[in-house]
Write the structure tokens for this entry.
Amino acid sequence: MWRYAYPGSEDEAKANISWQLVRRVLAYARPYRKQITIVLILILIQTVIGLLTPLIFRQLIDVTLPQGNAEQLNILALGLVAIPLFNSVIGIIIRRLDSVVGEGVIYHLRYQLYAHLQRMSLRFFTNTKSGELMSRLNNDVVNAQTAITDTLIGAVTNTFTVIATLIVMLSLEWRLTIIGVAVLPILIIVARRVGKHLRQIAREQMDINAQMNAMVGETLNISGALLVKLFGRTELETQRFGERASRVREIGIRRAVLGSQFWAVLGLTGVIGSALVYWMGGHLVLAGAFSIGTIVAFSAYLGQLYGPLQYLVNVPVEFSTSMVSFERVFEIIDLPVEIAEKPDALVLNEVRGALIFDHVTFKYDTDAEGLLTEVRRYGRIDNVTAVLSGGSGGAARPGGENGAEAVVTHQARETALEDITFEIHPGQLAALVGPSGAGKTTMTYLIPRLYDPTGGRILIDGHDLRDVQLESLSDNIGMVTQETYLFHDTIRTNLLYARLDATDAELVAAARAANIHDFIMGMPDGYNTIVGERGYRLSGGEKQRLAIARVILKDPRILVLDEATSHLDSQSEALIQEALERIMANRTSIVIAHRLSTILAADIILVIDRGRIVERGTHAELLEKGGLYAHLYETQFERSSEAAHPTESFGD
């Protein structure tokens, strides 16, 4: 394994790059072996042709001009034009092939990263800021590809250039060659000392950029912007962003200054080497050891030598910097998939809809394993950690299903669900009732396998969910959450997300069943109306009816619904209730019930409190027990209004 140390740590600036990592990086170049080979060949041709120019200058100075050979002068002048012209054409071809390789590597890295993120569990996303993911998908992926397209290819070609140039220089004058390369140790020392600081700054710069991107993602989406405006925190958030942006600016300046110092020292070293060559070469010319043309040609070769040498000295710096980006990308790709599918997973066909919870226990995992490494923060405590109910304060309710005599004041606890056991037969309606935070939503998240139980098992038609193919499980389960999410796209696109091959007739039928068709047709663009960011151009009731229409179009065998409508007007509430009654017909339905009409229609009512099923039965049976259900019923309703208003909210 390999890692990069932060400044000030004991292993500061130590980058342990294993051959395994290098092979893994090179694997991304394997599909482009043909293009890379052609690029290398073309660069070698460029190098060889470039070596001819100094020889032309020597011929001009030592032979052509002294002899007055006009014909040869014309040919050499034509050569001085033809060589750069030919190299320019080759350069265009190289740039084309190099961009194919570079963009291809970016594509494969980005695709692999996104595909892996899609397989991550819900826990990963609740513990990770989307801005940091965007930073790795964009900045880090782009920076990583330079290790292949620039550093590795450049290292090979510049190595050949150095070798070829040295051979020619040695053939011209071995003494000047030795003087010319005598400055190489200085280059190496400078590169090693400055290079480690550049690696540190590069890693810190990526982290700070990720922090800034995370803040942008949180405060500039529609929900974040609304929250900022409602609480009047525009100036505060602008100030916080300014602080992060200033850190990005400062570290960018540090990197630019250090980089310029690095290249200035390298350039100065090259100047010293050139001066030594001219000094000694001048004395040799005065002594008649060789001609003026030779020293001119030699000085030109020296320029061609120092450029590649400086590049090669800087290769470890550039390669290590690129590896920092690869590290950040690989960190996500290497994260284990918590909700994994077995190789021989069962495909669900002709699902009846029998659902069993068999002694299910669930605890939200707060361990860092399986999550991104913590990014260092500055000026604000904003590390992301899972929010758990902690402690056991307050009066505890006796366990079991015999009822309870007191209502606890809160639902704080460490284990979200404990020993949940029940069975729902095909076509039945089960209503989940209980105080807020009791664990109802957590139970519904386990059914489509957004999480796996910590203990026990969940079965559909007798099959453990862990043995079922995830796609077929998703195909047979439809879920409508209280908070409806819509893409910033048309109504048609949002509905078709449930079934991509649905016809217009099926689309309209689903919308009619959800009581939303007439509203859609009243819009200027009908089904092609843009709903806005997260559907914020629509009301809460309209969004919920679209969500219901989307599930109707999916036509699942099992429905999981949160029918909360307390924040809606009475007309929207009635339309949604009617749509829910249609969609639940002849399907197995698990509903977090907030309305008495749904509870009365339920085949079984499960009363949840502090992660346990404390009561179960029908409405009448539970009232007779006089436990928590009866308490919720009495506190939520006035007996006199039950008959007149059977659709009142309940158990919110």
